[in-house]
Every structure is written in structure tokens, then in C-alpha cells.
Amino acid sequence: MEPVLEIRNLNVDYGLGDKAVRAVRDVSLTLHKGEVLGLAGESGSGKSTLAYGMTRLLAPPGVITGGEVIYHPPSGQAYDVLGLSDRALREFRWAETAIVFQGAMNSLNPVHKISTQLTDVLRAHEPKMSEHTRTARAREMLKLVGISPDRMDAYPHQLSGGMRQRVMIGMALILQPQVVIMDEPTTALDVVMQRQILGQLIELRERLGFSVIFITHDLSLLVEFSNRIAIMYGGRIVEQAPAATIYRDALHPYSKGLLSSFPALRGARRELAGIPGSPPDLAGMPAGCSFHPRCPRAFEPCSSAIPVLGRPDVPDGAGRSVACWLHPAEQTVG
Fold it and tell me: Which residue from 119, 175, 220, 245 could staple onto 262, CB 3.0 to 4.6 Å apart?
């Protein structure tokens, strides 16, 4: 599969100097064309920081301290997003990579109509487009995400939570970007609406051909809708594998803990088991594997040496990677 976005050894800090807190630590990921890549982990694991870092949307005091974000356009040479000028970065955002933020009500301007906010995107990136064409494109996009074009003149407070989130998805797709980053887009919605919106998103992906990075703490959603899943803990990727492989045979104890925290949709009933303890303090990370204070299977190397993310020595190890001393790896996998 061809890559569309490659994150190479990305590091993100909050603050400067000795008091800086490293929220993302040497993260490497590859998103392929047409793929849905799920990114899971508890709150504070670095998921959203990674998304904002790769798109250079970090608010102060967030600072990118190392790494590359290589974008592969449909035509032309690949380039590093972190090296773009301010003007090139404005052209890159929404046109090549768009983000659907967690709170649609906070992302939409409450004093502007939906039509204005949709056409503003076109006005900024397609200044030569006529007003009539912009309006027609906005109506088409609303219809595509399941909202009647009659709601064009509605204000955000006149729409339900699910409709507002659909508007945000439509706004993200209106310029037909190659990559859509979804940062917990369904957290505030009920389960039925979550499934409707995600099902529609997958249908749109199949129709339009864009790639998705889907960020959430709900691993059950990723198992259902993602092609591949990466698990984050303490600012690092600790496991990466196809979604079905993670669900069937997760290798990292943290991944197994996340899987055990939600009920199965079918099969025999089982008792849910949470992960003991709390996520690590990023300002004072434990030595060795950052998960070892909470890990039920920790042993001697875990408290002193950081495991390398690489291909595990298991029968189905191809295409997956894990950072755990239970499955030591020699070759680093991006």
C-alpha cells in the first residue's frame, strides 16, 4: 500500500528547558492511502497532542522538538509539513489535511449560519470560485453527510449534536482532502448516533477515497471501524497491528487491559476488568517501561530498560509491532 502520511520520530514538549514535559516521545506512524488508522489510549496518553503536532496546530506552550511529518500528495514530490512556510501551511490545511475536532459546538461559530461557515472554507481556498458555485457546493456537501440543504440558514444552536458533528465532517471534506483526522468526534453523542455517523464516514471514505486517522479512547469503536490500530501510552506507541489482530490477540498488557474494559457485542457474558492505577505523570515518568507500575506481568527488565517498538517473535508477527519485554524485538517498525 502507498503511504499518504509518514510520521517519523516525532517529539512534542510542553514548555522549555529543564521543566519541559515531553507529551509525545519518538512516535513513528505511517498512514496508507484509503486506510482508517485508529489511535487509542487513555486520556493523557498523547493522542490529541500527536494530531495537533503533525498539523502544527499546537497552542503555546506546545513545541515540536524533533521529527518529520512527510506528506505524499497525489501528484508531485513528498514534503515535510513541519518545514512549510506559514503561507504554504495555510494552503495545506483543509485542502490536503482536515481535522474534525471533539466538540462541534465549540468548533462552530455560534453567531454565523451554517452556510456562511461552509462557504468560508471555499472562499479562503478557492477565491476565484463564484458565490453561486460555493453555495451549490455547500448544499451538496450537507446532503452528502445526511443533512437536508434546507438547514443551510440554521445556526449551530438550532441543530442537534449529531447534526452539528455532521456539519463539521462536511466542512472537513468540502475541499476533498487526502487525510482527515478525527479527534474523538463522537464522544458527546449517544451510542446510536455514534454508529450512524461513523457508518456514514466509512461510506464517504469508500466513495471519496480519503484516508482517516481516528483518535478515541474507545477501543471498541476502532475494532469495528478501523483497518489498523495503534495503541499509545505515556506518549509512545506501545502496540500496532491490524484491527482484527489486536482484537483477537493483543500482545501488550496495556492493550489487553483496554480490550477487557468494554463488553463484547456477542458471545458469552464476561466480567469486565479495568486497568489498576492511573496513567503516568508525564513530568515524572517511571524508569524503564512506563506501564510497568500498573502491569500485572511486569518482571525484571521492565523497571530498568525501555522496550523497543518492533516486530514480535510470534507466528503472525508480520505487519505488527509491540514495545514490551514479554515480546522483545530487535527491528524498529514505523
Answer: 220
- Is residue 331, in this structure, part of any structural domain at all? no
For the entire predicted model, the pTM comes to 0.90
Whether residues 109 and 224 fall in one domain: no
Grid coordinates given for 22: 515531553
Instruction: For residue 164, give its domain range.
Output: 104-176
158 grid coordinates: 438550532
Are 39 and 171 contained in the same domain? Answer: no
CA distance 42 to 191: 19
Going by C-alpha positions, the residue among 245, 253, 211 that lies closest to residue 228 is 245
- Please check whether residue 334 lies inside any domain of the structure: no
Sign of CA dihedral 308, 314, 320, 322: negative
Question: Same structural domain for residues 221 and 161?
Answer: no
DSSP string, 156-189: GGGS-HHHHHHHHHHHHHTT--SEEEEESTTTTS
With a CB cutoff of 8 Å and minimum separation 6, the contacts of 103 are 188
Rounded to whole angstroms, the Cα distance separating 142 from 166 reads 8
pLDDT tens sequence across 199-242? 888 888 988 899 999 998 888 888 888 999 999 999 999 999 99
- 222 in the same domain as 134: no
Q: How many domains is the chain built from?
A: 2
Torsion sign across C-alpha atoms 223, 209, 103, 54: positive
